[in-house]
Amino acid sequence: MSMVNTRGTYARILFVDFSSAFNTIIPEILCSKLTQLTVPAPTCQWITDFLTDRRQQVRLGNITSSIRKISTGAPQGCVLSPLLFSLYTNDCTSGDPSVKLLKFADDTTVIGLIRDGDESAYRQEVEQLALWCGQNNLELNKLKTVEMTVDFRRKALGSETAHSIPVNV
Length: 169
Prior knowledge:
This protein is an alpha+beta fold. The chain has four helices and ten strands; from the N terminus they run E-H-H-E-E-E-E-H-E-E-H-E-E-E. The chain has helices spanning 27-36, 41-51, 80-88, 120-135; strands at residues 9-17, 54-56, 59-60, 63-64, 68-70, 99-104, 107-115, 146-150, 160-162, 165-167. A hairpin with a 2-residue loop joins strand 6 and strand 7 (107-115). Helix 1 (27-36) packs antiparallel against helix 2 (41-51). It starts with 8 loop residues before the first strand and ends with a strand.
């Protein structure tokens, strides 16, 4: 952030919230990604089996729902779920050195260092993130995804959109 003090430079920071992040993992896509990371086939199969055909039932007071099989997502509260989600999103990276993607489990932050008002690299990376989400069964939560500008130039900036999704600035 010390670069923000450089003349003509400011930062755009997008705090990304995914809707039901852990619930969106598709086991087959995760297995493909794990294979690309050279995870052994038996481990991939074990993870796929772990995530596929899980049984779920809800009880409210004395009423119990019927059992449903779930074949997407990772179990809430399971110690493996954050790790599996991190592996699922491992290939979501920035292709531009002026834009950084920081990830921790289901939290993602895009930081763009803007020089001389040229936001094109940052905007392109945000668009790429939105496209990547569409290809990986993830949805940006419009209400919780927000953008912050760190700008010591004292010039107000307007609201923006990310892949046709309004983002609060």
